[in-house]
Amino acid sequence: MSGIVISRRHILGMLGAGGAAAALSACGSSIGNDSSSGGGGETKSIKVGLVIPQAGVYAPLGVDMKQGWDLWLERHDGKFGDFTVTTVAADEGETPQTGVPATQRLLQSENCDVLVGIVNSATALGLRDLVTEAKKVLVVANAGAEDITAKGASPYIWRSSFANGQVSGAMGTYLAEENADDSVYVIASDYAAGDEALAGFTTAFEKGGGKIAGMAKPPFGKTQDYQPFLSKIKSSGAKATFCFFAGSEAVSFVKQYRQFGLADDIPLYGSGFLTEGGVLDAQGDAALDVQTSLHYTSALDTPANQEFAQAYQDKFDAVPTVYAVQTWDAANVLDRALKASGSADGDDLSKALGGLGEIDDSPRGPWSFENQTPKQKFYMRKVEKEGDGYVNTVVAETEPVGQGG
Amino acid sequence: MTDRVSWPPRGMLFGVAAALLLAAAPLFLAPYATTTLTRMLVFGLLAASLALLVGVTGLPSLGHAAYFGVGAYAAGWFAKNISAGAPLSLLVAAAAGGLVAAATGWVAVRARGVFFLVLTLAIGEIVHQAADRWDSVTGGSNGLYGIPATMFGGEPISNVGLLYWYVLLAFGIGLAVLWLVARSPYGTALRGIHDNEPRMRALGYPTSLYKYAVFVIAGTIAGLAGGLLATQQRLVTPEDLGFTTAALALLAVIIGGAGSLWGACLGAALVILVRDTLGPTLDGHGPLVLGLLFILVVYLMPCGIAGIRLRRGQRPAAGDSGGTGKPAPEPVSVGGGASR
Amino acid sequence: MSAWFDANLVSILNGAAIGCLLFILAIGLSLVFGMMDVLNLAHGAIFLGGAYVGWKVGGAAPTWASFLLALGVAVLLGLVAGGVLSAMTEPLRNRSHLDQALLTLGIALVVAELLSMAFGNDVRGVNAPPGLDGSVSVFGNAYPTYRLMLIGVGAVLAAGMWLLVSRTMIGAVIRGTVADREMISAIGIDNRKVKLAVFAAGSALAAVAGVLGGPIYGARPGLDATVLILALVVVVIGGLGSVRGALVGALIIGQIESLGRALFADAASFVLFGALAIVLVLRPQGLFAGATR
């Protein structure tokens, strides 16, 4: 029981702190002109709200994103151009239920000038009206829904990551070139990202002359056992499988794909998240020879990446992931844009982002904004063993492609 | 068997004071505080509608968020595709919540005790799945986004203070409906069912019909609350009708003291404060604090906020339907032997 | 018919393996509720604790020694966790199911958060012990050996539980407590001790299920909620407080999750709760209500 008493004091303390914080920020009025003029001006400082998942299933991504962000700032004296950067982190959680209020707090209570982060696509889409009406720039550093920069675009929302169909489309084009005669079975988690990935792959693959042998969509977040679907793949007679899975589903799928004996006969391809970061270690040997497409791999042999990967390794004792690079690049483009605009105002910043041209020093290789989302190279990667660990080695690379194709 | 559910006897004064304070809030609160208060009102109305089921009638539903979410989707879809005019989307939301509650309630109210808990959980999950899969209407897992701001007299309500007043007005109407139901002779009969259903049936009350009706009423008000969510957040996702939302609404009811409408609203305010304001600042320990809140509430506040007030004020009347406090033999327990 | 059987044989076999794992998981939940009237929503968190024990003690690629050691540690931790849960729910003896559910839900949230602090948020993959980590050919289809073993373990455990409950003195007390708790306490058996014992044993089984489930489910945040829902559905379909009900419920859910998804791939996400709703509409107290065998 004594444990409970301590916990109680603990929670009361926390509530007290929260109450005080609420009281401090609670004065003023909500009626009349709601334009706020935080930051900017003569002081030359900028306040950035970093919205990343710190709890829940996406938390490992949040860790990588935070590290990419911190590393960039550390190596650039904590400054964007002449602006001293203050970062306020907030927990995006798993869903918009936590992500939207967290962002709202950063905008309305912390008066952040710029927002960076967002893993969940629904959260990114749901924030559109909020940031557009506040006229603040949001750099989406992960969420891959097509609509974020297509149908649901806002002049204030930019993306430093990818679009779901763009990643899988690169694999579709590549596979069609390699062996268009073989039919491919496609499978993805049954939710928006999975649908977009399948559509992107199928369109590109069929355009290149490939045939789809069949399709399955296991329930998202509710499937631990893929055997029923693996049986279908086997009986379809497909010569290869393309899949889109992430997180724990990527681990289960890749392991079971080998356990049920498919890995030897029907090679497995996928969007790069299948074997990126922590999930690769959990998959272990089961992931060997799996091939995926992504706009980054830690094995990339370029000076920019080697310098980045070494610094990352030194500071965090970890291999960098695509999630870290996307946030690193978010800082990179904000730095360039602020140098050009000299103003943290949302409209000025947005205009400057549009005029950046090619980002030539990114660890992922050269890329540029096209319709506010990256036009970038994709790498065909193959899982290989290296020492005790596993690595995605580069098999081939594409020309830069944008979201549209 | 007094009106424990309604405002406490001397509470009328409190009620008026609270209403005035709430109405004046945007004049002295900063935008973020006002936004938070708006969220509290939305979630408070959901919790109050659940209190009518749990506290008054003794039907602890784990699927109440389904009707909240259905209302939210209906309002969002209507505002996006047909009209964003002021009260229309809210009416659609309430109707949709009521209709879905009517369609599913007849199954739910047949079950007793823990089976009611699990059956409502199943209903909630099925509706949740439907929201997740019906892409063309709900937007699937990306959610229904881009809901236009509510229009009033040709102008969009985009100012957080004005939006707050709009939500407050609807909240007041919804709460008044719940309060009138709880105060009516019908509400008294519901409390009778809570305390001893077989006896009520022996007295000639159509208890199943009564329970079904209150299920639909609560679903309608939950739908209205959902409509307010769509109005305020302008985004609806499947999470809004998931298990977490349902469990948090129950927590709010228990914090408030099952059976107290205003207690449920205060409970909801506390839950929103912990989840939305405190949670994101804790480096990912938001769920831990919520978990501790669950545990503390159950141990330390067996009768909720309303119970604390009662203990200070007058003693509850004998046979009071506090529901959670007294070790009285529970008619709500699992067996249901007496009724079969 | 035989072609259909051939095509779905692996799914049926797989359903049996999943069913056996679910039985080990759910039996504790069922008995605690049936005997003690406590709805324990922290049951899934104990399973997850077991899964992490399997990963930490057994290692990602366990030897037989480390695998068995992990099972032993899981049993001990499960017993302790059950004891703590029994003590924590004791003050709520006369409160409603809802209060118990909210308390154990809070405990589940806290335990899950503590586990994620201790073991991180990454997905942890676990291999089967040597000899079981490969595949064997079953009628021409590769099938993981480990899952076959799981069916055996489940069958042995089910038989053991059935004998225990139907043929022994302990079983008589268990059955008596489900039927009439007051009567059992009137003949001089301390209810609290029975509750403690059942809680501890049920939690130990859940932790064991976590270790056994490791090679299939791994260990990760969120797994606790997933398995809790499955266990709840098993228990409700089978009827509370019944060994036979838990076994039949587990095997049914195993098939629904495996064969059901293979047959109704397009409606896969509705199958589980659809089945639950149908059972509850037809038999509101579950399939084997009150029959403690």
Order of adjacent strands in the largest pleated sheet of chain C? 1-2
Strand content of chain A: 15-25%
| β-sheet strand percentage of chain C | under 5%
- CATH-defined topology of the largest domain in chain A: Rossmann fold
What's the domain count of chain C? 1
Helix count of chain A equals: 13
Summing up helix and strand content along with how strands pair, one would put the structural category of chain A as alpha/beta
Tell me the quaternary state: heterotrimer
**What is the molecular shape of chain A?**
globular
In total, the number of strands of chain C is 2
H/E element order of chain C: HHHHEEHHHHHHH
What form of chain C results from the Cα inertia axes? globular
Q: Count the strands of chain A?
A: 16
Q: Report the radius of gyration of chain A as a whole number of Å.
A: 22 Å
Radius of gyration of chain C: 19 Å
What separation lies between the terminal Cα atoms of chain A?
61 Å
Note down, in words, how this protein is organized.
The complex is a heterotrimer of chains A (405), B (340) and C (293). Chain A has 405 residues and is an alpha/beta fold. Chain A has 13 helices and 16 strands. In chain A, helix 6 packs parallel to helix 7 and helix 12 (322-341) packs across helix 13 (346-354). Chain B is mainly alpha-helical and 340 residues long. Chain B has a domain at 11-242. In chain B, strand 2 (151-152) and strand 3 (155-156) form a beta hairpin. The radius of gyration of chain B is 19 Å and the shape is globular. Chain C is mainly alpha-helical and 293 residues long. Chain C has 11 helices and 2 strands; from the N terminus they run ααααββααααααα. Chain C has a two-stranded antiparallel ribbon with strand order 1-2. The longest helix of chain C has 35 residues, at 2-36. The mean pLDDT of chain C is 84. The chains are: A alpha/beta (405), B mainly alpha (340), C mainly alpha (293). Chains A and C meet through helix 2, helix 8, helix 9 and helix 10 of A and helix 1, strand 2, helix 10 and helix 11 of C.
